[in-house]
Design a protein that fits this description.
Chain A: One of its GO terms (cellular component) is plasma membrane. Chain A: This is Nucleoside ABC transporter ATP-binding protein. Chain A: It comes from Luteimicrobium subarcticum. Chain A: One of its GO terms (molecular function) is ATP binding. The complex is a heterodimer of chains A (522) and B (414). Chain A has 522 residues and is an alpha/beta fold. Chain A has 19 helices and 22 strands. In chain A, 52% of the residues are buried. Chain A has three domains: 233 residues, P-loop containing nucleotide triphosphate hydrolases (Rossmann fold, 3-Layer(aba) Sandwich); 198 residues, P-loop containing nucleotide triphosphate hydrolases (Rossmann fold); 68 residues, no CATH class. Chain B is mainly α and 414 residues long. Chain B is built from 18 helices and two strands. A two-stranded antiparallel sheet of chain B has the order 1-2. In chain B, helix 9 packs antiparallel against helix 14. Chain B is globular, with a radius of gyration of 25 Å. Classes of the chains: A alpha/beta (522), B mainly alpha (414).
Chain lengths: 522, 414
């Protein structure tokens, strides 16, 4: 099936989200739609999927113009979509989720679960992946949940599959698996529209790359194009993907974590005897697959989680057992992993969010009252300094794009003198232009002599920032290695392989990651 | 895909799934926030719709209309004119009883209903402020009723037991009401902060405790008129009463000024103070607040203390301004109506002042309407209920008036 978009324009008030977009998706092709957050990729796909109606332009399927008024129409025309946030019922099984919406019934109206199970097995078998129809969705890892979404679309005979930022929630291994699945689907004749802002993945899997910027198509590229060129097209200017940083001027040890053990509600040791130190003027990155205790480690340092054993000292003062307020006052800046849940109050204005943990500071209050003038002035300064794209200090923070939200959080945390700066996933879901900016700010903070602790699951980020890397696996530190350790070795350590073993294996078996690195196209 | 990769995933602990599915509690609170801060247009249209349905009900229960309906097929015009008469007389009586009595002989008399509305609205506004403060901090204070009851009880006790000059007596009685309400609300706040007990359950239970506590107190000699067995306290001293605002002729007392001051204080607290900033932050996103070093349990306790104090003040205003003596029905339904008024006023102080006046007006006007036209006051209760129903279901109102959906704001255009 050939799918064509002709002159699609979609406006939201004064904002033109899509400006005369033309796009052709050939059968059996992986078509990557590359663009920053807010470039209009998702809007375009929502038009294609019948969620929005275009103001201008038409959708053409096999040379027939079609009109979609609802996702049902799009599904009927053979277009399936896997949303960034899954549309699954967590308490249902895989088979139940797949049949949801067009449940097969036996005579008398009773559900025919068996045929749904068979369908799941058939589809999974046809494309060579593994899925238990009776598993309950909420028990499955995110990567497998995503497979359920894909099967759901395929089970309705989707000929074109739209994947909206599919790798945003995946670990590196899961991403590799997804790439494999996408290739199999393509080989079986399914077209895939792959929406992303991650250059590496695009180059690994796409047949055609279309770059979108500010609602317009700015060009197409071959998958062999260099990352820097793609980034420049996407952002509209040259970006350096590698942070320029001088060798660290390492000072005294600031943060000392000794034998820290944290237990979760189920009694599992999520942080298991961790020893780690961060000196002034260096960046230590904690690398690891999501869910190996990194989050709990930094939350314990902040004091929102309590430890069962060990100690956390900042410049010799014990932090454990103190309130979050005290820890922040001791000179700790904290950027949480999940900015929308933990970093920002979405209903609050940008100005209010920029002082969320600073309103006790006499800079921003007169006695019991807020000093609105100072808060406003602070907001204007931070917005200018961090180039936060907002309609103004009074705009609700929830309305900003992911990158700008993150800039708000980072700007707030760096707006006071710090002894220790902790950032968890500082650039997750952030566009390329902002990543560059945030990385430079973090390095600048290091160069001012602050101890910096970064938690990241992205190897690129670890490689870009870290002076030393601590790899965590199942709550333990597998090893602490220099920042320039090869990606393969880090990847293997993230799977729990000790350093020496990892180095040996990395030489024998290069992984998909390295193949991509070398520009090898499968 | 190779088996080795599958093995890797199985070996690693499952990553935490994205926190996309809000828990039922989060959903409830976002619904609450939407209702509490919904559009102004919908509020107005909800009234229009409620009055239209009210008109049908008025016509339906009217005897003349009923008579005319019996010979509808011979003279259909009679039915419509009878219905029109019934609706017009009922609604004009509602207006005359609540705003301006245009049939009165003097200007002074014509303005009496408005003063009555203000008197009726005073405690309601204060109690609604109490509910709104809690709303905005993410708590649902169903317990305003109990807090009003204890506030009125303590204010009354101070009012009739001690005999002091007015400059001391009245403030003392008001302060007593505030303190009692704060304690009552504070219990719920402290229990939530310390043990996680849900404030809705706790405050509902405390409502019963307050009601029966008052009923029991009224059987004791300390709370009864000497020499009487009636469950009614003596009237409070004149020195403890809220004086009339515009002279004895009008019902409205300084309680209305207290209500307006309360609105100003709440506005300052929520919009301009550091505490209000933290309360609102906790109400909108407790996790981000905790990460920012705000103690959520402490804020929970504070907000229930403040909310309870305001509700206690409402009880004191009702008693010292209107009831004067304590009976078991002293709180009426102020505490529950306050929830409605807070919703109507979209949890904003100015909105609550107007919503309180409106609600007070409907109550006063309804009473007058029943006397003047025989239309049952239940119609007014139905009107009030319908207004809330429509505000809670904005989609329904938009459907009836064929309004467009509010423009979908794209969450994150990627």
């Amino acid at each position: 099936m050939q799918l064509e978009l002709r002159g699609i324009t979609k406006r939201f008030g004064a904002l033109v989200a899509n400006d005369h977009i033309d796009l052709v998706v050939e059968p059996g092709q992986i078509h990557a739609l590359l663009g920053e957050n807010g470039a209009g990729k998702s809007t375009l796909m929502n038009v294609l999927f019948g969620l929005y109606r275009p103001d201008e332009g038409e959708i053409v399927v096999d040379d027939e113009p079609v009109r979609f008024t609802s996702p049902g129409d799009a599904l009927a025309a053979g277009i399936g979509m896997v949303h960034q946030h899954f549309m699954l019922v967590p308490v249902f099984t895989v088979a139940e989720n797949v049949m949801l919406g067009h449940e097969p019934t036996r005579r008398g109206g009773s559900l025919d679960l068996e045929s749904a199970r068979t369908l799941v097995r058939d589809v999974a078998h046809r494309f060579g992946f593994d899925l238990d129809p009776d598993a309950v969705v909420e028990d499955l890892p995110v990567g497998v949940q995503q497979r359920v979404e894909i099967v759901k679309a395929l089970a309705r005979d989707a000929k074109v599959l739209i994947l909206d930022e599919p790798t945003a929630v995946l670990t590196p291994q899961e991403t590799d698996e997804l790439i494999e699945i996408m290739r199999q689907l393509r080989d079986a004749g399914t077209s895939i529209v792959f929406i992303t802002h991650k250059l590496r993945e695009v180059r690994a899997v796409a047949d055609v790359i279309t770059v979108v910027r500010r609602g317009r198509i700015v060009g197409t590229a071959e998958p062999t194009a260099a990352e820097n060129d793609l980034a420049a097209m996407m952002v509209g200017r040259d970006v350096s993907l590698q942070v320029d940083k001088a060798p660290p001027q390492v000072g005294d040890v600031a943060l000392e974590i000794d034998d820290l053990t944290v237990v979760d509600a189920l009694g599992t040791r999520v942080v298991d005897g961790v020893d780690l130190s961060v000196a002034r003027g260096e960046i230590v990155a904690v690398a690891g697959v999501q869910g190996n205790g990194q989050t709990e480690l930094v939350e314990t340092v902040l004091g929102v989680r309590s430890a069962v054993a060990g100690s956390v000292r900042l410049d010799g003062t014990e932090l454990l057992g103190r309130s979050v307020r005290d820890v922040l006052d001791a000179g700790v800046g904290f950027v949480p992993e999940d900015r929308t849940e933990d970093g920002l109050v979405a209903d609050f204005t940008v100005a209010e969010n920029l002082v969320l943990d600073l309103v006790h500071d006499t800079r921003f209050r007169h006695g019991l009252a807020l000093d609105l003038a100072a808060i406003g002035a602070n907001a204007r300064e931070r917005i200018a300094e961090y180039d936060i794209r907002t309609q103004g200090p009074g705009q609700a923070a929830g309305k900003l794009s992911g990158g700008n939200q993150q800039k708000v959080v980072v700007a707030r945390e760096l707006s006071r003198p710090l002894r220790l700066f902790i950032a968890s996933q500082p650039t997750r879901g952030v566009d390329v232009g902002s990543i560059e900016f945030l990385h430079r700010r973090i390095v600048a903070e290091r160069d001012q002599g602050t101890a910096v602790l970064i938690v990241s699951t992205e190897l690129e980020e670890v490689a870009a920032l870290a002076d030393r890397v601590a790899v965590m696996y199942r709550g333990k530190v597998v090893g602490i290695v220099p920042g320039d350790t090869p990606r393969d070795v880090l990847g293997l350590m993230m799977a729990g392989v000790p350093l020496d073993e990892a180095q040996r294996q990395a030489e024998d078996h290069p992984t998909v990651e390295t193949l991509i690195e070398e520009g090898d196209q499968p | 895909m190779s088996d080795e990769l599958v093995g890797d995933v199985a070996a690693a602990p499952p990553p935490t799934p994205p926190r996309d599915e809000p828990s039922s509690e989060e959903q409830a609170s976002s619904w609450l926030r939407r209702v509490a801060t919904g559009g102004f247009g919908v509020t107005v249209l909800s009234f229009v719709l409620a009055f239209v349905i009210g008109a049908v009900l008025i016509a339906a229960v009217d005897e003349d209309v009923d008579d005319a309906a019996s010979y509808f097929f011979s003279r259909p015009g009679d039915l419509f004119s009878a219905a029109w008469d019934a609706i017009w007389s009922a609604y004009s009586a509602l207006f005359r009883g609540s705003v301006i009595n245009f049939e009165a002989y003097t200007v002074a008399d014509a303005l009496k209903p408005l003063a009555g509305t203000m008197a009726q609205a005073s405690p309601l506004i204060v109690a609604a402020l109490a509910v709104a403060v809690a709303f905005r901090a993410g708590l649902f204070n169903i317990g305003a009723q109990g807090q009003v009851t204890v506030g009125a009880t303590v204010a009354a006790y101070i009012g009739f037991t001690y005999h002091l000059p007015a400059v001391v007596h009245l403030p003392l009685a008001l302060a007593g009401g505030i303190a009692a309400g704060a304690v009552w609300g504070g219990i719920a706040g402290l229990l939530k902060a310390r043990t996680g007990a849900h404030e809705v359950i706790v405050t509902i239970m405390l409502n019963y405790v307050a009601t029966y506590l008052l009923a029991w107190l009224l059987t004791t000699t300390a709370f009864q008129v000497p020499g009487s067995n009636e469950p009614k306290s003596p009237a409070v001293d004149d020195s403890a009463q809220l004086p009339p605002l515009f002279g004895d002729r009008y019902d409205v007392t300084w309680g209305f000024v207290v209500a307006l001051l309360g609105a100003v204080v709440v506005w300052w607290l929520m919009s301009r103070s550091r505490l209000g900033f933290q309360l609102r932050a906790v109400g909108s996103n407790p996790r981000a607040s905790r990460t920012a070093g705000i103690s959520v349990p402490r804020m929970t306790t504070y907000v229930m203390l403040i909310s309870g104090a305001l509700a206690g003040l409402a009880g004191a205003v009702q008693l010292l301004g209107t009831s004067k003596a304590l009976t078991d029905g002293v709180a009426g339904s102020i505490g529950f109506d306050a929830i409605t008024v807070a919703l109507l006023g979209r949890s904003r102080p100015l909105g609550i002042v107007f919503a309180g006046l409106l609600y007070g007006g409907l109550t006063r006007g309804g009473q007058f309407m029943e006397v003047a036209t025989g239309t049952p006051i239940d119609i007014v209760l139905v009107l009030q209920a319908l207004v809330v129903l429509f505000i809670a279901a904005p989609g329904l109102v938009r459907g009836v008036f064929r309004l467009p959906e509010p423009r979908l704001v794209e969450k994150s255009a990627a």
